[in-house]
């Protein structure tokens, strides 16, 4: 036992530091196959796009992805991110933790970006490191985090990968002028080549390494499409950065002529909607709408290269003997809006367009051509990968494995809620982004909020509290486009308004109380927050909580509020942190029966 432990420790150490230039095949000769894994364990190919919408139908314009992954796998129709911004969302995905637990809440220092990721200790403690310790070979190409740059890529090098080739700032979003950095080599410019073309070559190279290895592999491919393009030369001229429409490969430039953004009820509405700065947005004129339709088409065109990338990966797996032993997971870091609620292109909001993203999974035992409507989130993905790889779950996971056949015999708890949280800036993208804003700026300073998205038997709700203490409540069963803020109706304007048979005040007190738990939850309390309020287990969902016997308890509970708006997660600025449990409240069934 002592010898095996020593071998395992040395193996983990060598894998963790393997950005030193050891070729993967040399490292494998040193290590051999891990005693805890075998080639029969499943492989993983994880594809994560950047800013891809679900609600605006982009996935419907990707026929190869639909054929390979949706028809041959399962589509998760209620999959959400927990922070609608790339870097915080990705850190939450790779750690299985809410952003208030990672405290990586922005795209750049001091509150986010690669330096904050390192400062928080996650370079030694995130998914690829854990998978290497479990005997996997790990590979990555594409965008990792913002503020991972040509100047700091080696300070320190990213841990956890047998092979890596990262996109680096400030060239990450420059479609025709990207810079990649492989293993511990110096950065290399690919100016003049399309970034999706470059990443396809790199992805197939790492896939070849994985297929030729003796151990199971985990490959992440992170193309920048369909994110906005950023002209790097503008940075040299010291002019304001404008995120313009993405650039497609030449062969896709003429596709989708005449396609327009879906003209739903909340697209550029006549009346303002939402709260806070969103309610001040100006109605967009015809020239702006034409530009935004063009922007939308360019996003669809940019995704065609990703569609072909998926096709190339699946075909290479088909040519090997590993396709039936490989899980392919496809998702995005956050969603996207264009024109809804008068918003210019962008993300960062709690609306459906921003927090819902595609999730497609194909692999051993995964049902084919099936739609799964269970509520799932990005913080569930790391636990899901652990479960599928038969690795014991970590106690610090804020998520739980999603409903898929797996090697685990245990039944994992499900949840009906998503904790959505955001701090700091909102970014108004596109050449006309600032025109929607009355002060004609492309940055909004006051975009901090906490919210809960909850879907259960008979209810479909979104409730949020902003840092200026404005509130929103939408019943998406009757108001799928989130145009009618019911929170204002709860204050005697429309006392007859009910949600699935309950008064607004009853529903709001329950939602506020569960949000009070979720805004600072950790581990199991993020998965089963009702247990904090009802430790005896008598309440497991919103429907249970609406029993009239609990009315006084929820009415007297502390309310979610902010003392002030901050750019990052500063708990002392965020009002009450702890909820009182029903047992401590001192009520009993006899008192309220």
Automatic annotation (TrEMBL):
State its Enzyme Commission number(s).
Answer: 3.1.6.1
Pfam families, per database record: Sulfatase (PF00884)
Q: Does the keyword Membrane apply?
A: no
Against CDD domains, the record matches this protein to: G6S (cd16147)
Which controlled-vocabulary keywords does the entry list?
Answer: Glycoprotein, Hydrolase, Signal
Q: Which reaction does it catalyse?
A: an aryl sulfate + H2O = a phenol + sulfate + H(+)
Domain Sulfatase N-terminal: from-to ranges: 42-389
Q: Which Gene3D superfamilies match?
A: Alkaline Phosphatase, subunit A
* Signal sequence, start to end: 1-19
Family assignment?
Belongs to the sulfatase family.
> What is the protein's given name?
Arylsulfatase
> What species is this protein from?
Aspergillus cavernicola
């Amino acid at each position: 036992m002592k010898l095996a432990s020593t071998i395992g420790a040395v193996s983990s150490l060598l894998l963790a530091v393997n950005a030193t230039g050891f070729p993967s095949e040399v490292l494998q000769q040193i290590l051999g196959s891990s005693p805890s894994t075998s080639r029969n364990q499943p492989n993983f190919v994880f594809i994560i796009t950047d800013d891809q919408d679900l609600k605006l139908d982009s996935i419907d314009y990707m026929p190869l992805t639909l054929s390979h992954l949706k028809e041959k796998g399962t589509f998760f129709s209620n999959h959400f991110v927990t922070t609608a911004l790339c870097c915080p969302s990705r850190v939450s995905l790779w750690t299985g933790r809410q952003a208030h637990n990672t405290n990586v809440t922005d795209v750049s220092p001091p509150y986010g970006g690669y330096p904050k990721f390192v400062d928080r200790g996650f370079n030694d403690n995130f998914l690829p490191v854990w998978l290497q310790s479990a005997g996997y070979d790990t590979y990555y190409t594409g965008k990792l985090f913002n503020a991972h740059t040509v100047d700091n890529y080696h300070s320190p090098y990213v841990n956890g990968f047998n092979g890596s080739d990262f996109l680096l700032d400030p060239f990450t979003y420059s479609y025709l002028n990207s810079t990649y950095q492989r293993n511990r080599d110096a950065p290399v410019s690919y100016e003049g080549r399309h970034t999706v073309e470059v990443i396809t070559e790199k992805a197939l190279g790492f896939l070849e390494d994985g297929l030729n290895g003796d151990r199971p592999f985990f490959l992440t491919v992170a193309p920048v499409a369909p994110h906005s393009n950023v002209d790097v030369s503008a940075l040299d001229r010291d002019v304001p950065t404008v995120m313009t429409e993405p650039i497609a490969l030449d062969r896709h430039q003429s596709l989708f002529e005449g396609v327009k953004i879906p003209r739903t009820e909340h697209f550029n509405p006549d009346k303002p909607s939402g709260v806070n700065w969103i309610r001040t947005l100006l109605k967009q004129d015809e020239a702006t709408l034409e530009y935004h339709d063009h922007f939308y088409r360019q996003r669809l065109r940019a995704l065609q290269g990703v569609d072909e990338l998926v096709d190339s990966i699946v075909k290479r797996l088909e040519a090997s003997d590993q396709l039936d032993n490989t899980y392919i997971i496809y998702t995005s870091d956050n969603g996207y809006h264009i024109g809804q609620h008068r918003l210019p292109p962008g993300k960062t909001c709690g609306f459906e367009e921003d927090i819902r993203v595609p999730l497609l999974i194909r692999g051993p035992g995964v049902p084919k051509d099936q739609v799964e409507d269970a509520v799932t989130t990005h913080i569930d993905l790391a636990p899901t990968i652990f479960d599928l790889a038969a690795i014991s779950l970590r106690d610090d996971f804020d998520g739980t494995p999603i409903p898929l056949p797996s090697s685990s015999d245990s039944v994992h708890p499900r949840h009906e809620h998503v904790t959505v949280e955001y701090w700091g800036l909102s970014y108004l993208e596109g050449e006309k982004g600032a025109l929607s804003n009355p002060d004609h700026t492309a940055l909004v300073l006051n975009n901090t909020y906490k919210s809960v998205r909850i879907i259960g038997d008979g209810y479909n709700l979104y409730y949020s509290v902003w840092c200026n203490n404005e509130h929103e409540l939408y019943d998406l069963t009757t108001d799928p486009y989130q145009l009618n803020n019911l929170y204002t109706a709860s204050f005697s304007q429309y006392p007859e308004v009910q949600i699935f048979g309950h008064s607004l005040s009853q529903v709001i007190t329950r939602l506020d109380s569960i949000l009070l738990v979720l805004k600072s939850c950790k581990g199991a309390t993020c998965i089963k927050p009702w247990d904090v309020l009802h430790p005896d287990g008598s309440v497991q969902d919103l429907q249970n909580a609406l029993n009239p016997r609990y009315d006084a308890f929820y009415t007297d509970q502390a309310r979610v509020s902010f003392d002030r708006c901050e750019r990052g997660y500063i708990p002392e600025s965020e009002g009450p942190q702890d909820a009182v449990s029903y047992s401590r409240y001192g009520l009993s069934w006899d008192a309220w029966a």
